[in-house]
Specification:
Layout (H helix, E strand, L loop, with lengths): L2 H16 L17 E2 L3 H11 L42 E3 L2 E7 L3 E7 L4 E6 L3 E8 L2 E10 L4 H4 L14 E10 L19 E7 L2 E9 L2 E8 L13 E3 L5 E4 L5 E3 L9 E8 L7 E6 L4 E4 L3 E9 L10 E11 L2 E11 L8 E4 L2 E11 L2 E14 L9 E4 L9 E7 L2 E6 L2 E8 L7 E7 L2 E8 L6 E10 L2 E15 L2 E12 L6 E2 L8 E3 L2 E14 L5 E13 L16 E2 L6 E5 L2 E2 L2 E5 L5 E5 L2 E5 L4 E3 L1
Parallel strand pairs: 14-16, 32-37
Antiparallel strand pairs: 1-14, 2-3, 3-4, 4-5, 6-7, 7-8, 8-9, 10-11, 11-15, 12-13, 15-16, 17-18, 18-19, 19-20, 21-22, 22-23, 23-24, 25-26, 26-27, 27-28, 29-30, 30-31, 31-32, 33-35, 34-35, 35-36, 36-38, 39-40, 41-42, 42-43
Helix pairs in contact: 1-2
Length: 621
Amino acid sequence: MTTLKRCALMLCILFGLLGLASLGCGGRQENISTVKNFESYEDLGNYVGRLVKGQGFSLGFGCGAPGSDPGGGSGGDSQTTVQTEGVDESDLVKVDDGFIFTVSYGDSAEIAIVNARDNKTLFIPCDYTPVEFYVWQKKLVVFGTYYLGGQDDSWSTDLPGDFDYADLWDRNNVRVSVYDLSALTPEADLSQLSASDLPLERTVMVPNAEFVTTRRIENQVFLVLRSVNLFNAHGQTYVPRLYDDAGNFEGMLEIEDLFLAPHDGRNLQFVYLLSFDLSARTAVRAQAYFTSADMVYMTEDNLYLAFCKYSTNLPAEERRIQTTVLRFARDGGELTYCNYLLTDGFLTSSLALYERDGALFLALTTGRTLSGVTAGSRTYVRAFDLNSPETRLAECGESEGVGAGYAVAGVSFSEDSCYVTTERESMVYLFDLADPAVTHLISQKRTMGINDYLFDLTGDGTVMLGIGQNKIGNTLRGIRVSIYRRVETEEGDQLTEVARYLNNDLERSVDLGQDYKAFLAWNGRYVFPFRSGRFFYLDQQQMPYEKYQSGALLLDFTGFSADDLPLTSEELVDLEDFGLVHMLAYEEIPDNPYATLDVVKRTVAADGKLYLIGNDRAVCL
């Protein structure tokens, strides 16, 4: 009997046992101190069998409060705002050499390419749903999803007969498509080009997967995916696999590429780490870890996977959220597992992680239970030693706790500073990170509102832009913009608010979004989209549809430097008096009153002009 047949038989038995098992929070924990290879597919199946008999589960938190360092940008084009300089991030809109790349959804999805010089557009039809893009040296890299609704013989022709691949069908799958953009020159007339002039160079497909995120460092792309289903309809553990351009089976990951990641409480999914080279058509490097990944943070040297879960070794009413972070070292396009950390508290987003001078800092809130944030909850900044020889990273410093009873809303790390705001509490906290072992709070400032976005205007943490909602009584309403300075005084560094803008005219509450990549930093201009309220209208067929008061806020700081700001709040600057604030509201398309930019998702700059990007169109301002 072949190895695959033995695996199939054993997993079929496992599937029968699965019906008798229930997922719960009780059961014995396996404490594993290092990453573990599965010795065989049988070993993998046995491990899964133990899990489904009562281990812990993962509780994931999506993107939290935005705020990040700019990805840079010069000339007439803007770039995606990224968390780490030098590490690019895919986005649903990209700009390159005066061309805007986005998605148009109609009867079917299309990639829309707009030439900002003349606003002519070229569409590339897609038999999949594009999600995010990269543009690099005349290559368009599109990450998308596709759904196989039934068996297609053309896909199964070359599949080996020893294993049942029925789980390919009726699954969500991930597709990576690379297009050649050589025909897109500044002089190109898009009305004279067709999709065939931008040929598809390469396709990589991963069935049974969902897109998490990607990062790019020069020509190397790193892709993080999660498995959708652990078992197929026949009770077999779904082993990660790849397909070639023609959809032919390319092979499962070898058993030496499947790992059990170290952490307490198991998560019933694989996390796939894929990497490939954009400059050469080489094989895709792939690993799979039996773990979870809700947040991803990457520097030029390391990639971190983070997720939150409830501790399972306490009674239900006492369980707290814990955070696990797995660290992988990068060498070119290779990722190698190094070590991990497990700590009490939960992260709101990847922006709450920061690597500096051999330490990894986390801004997280402790004390959250199944009932939510408790009165005993506190927010801390903790430091972990990356030079520790141990497989579990040792904590080397912790600040005092702040924000009693509240969770983190916004975080911004810069140089030796960390700014933190908390939910439903009008406070901004400043921590000093110069020495990880003595990380400490140095100042705090009360404001009348909540700062969701925190953005470093100077790059050294001395001047911080905060954007959020204003507070009128106990109600959050409208938009608030504040500028904070870290000022040296005889009593030590102090945090002070030196400039402000308030807008309370917008109807109902304001949704600023939860994606820091929506924030645009471009040549001294700072733009973020918003939508206000939720209204229901009737169309021509008397069918109700939703409409928002949507637009973007532009802060034009060109010709305005930090030296123009006062040092104390007694000389508070009103940004509107300086003409630095502009509302970019756009509600209806003039030639069609029923078509709206109901949600402004992005604001980009191309060829020196600003564009609002909505669900299905780009509007030049």
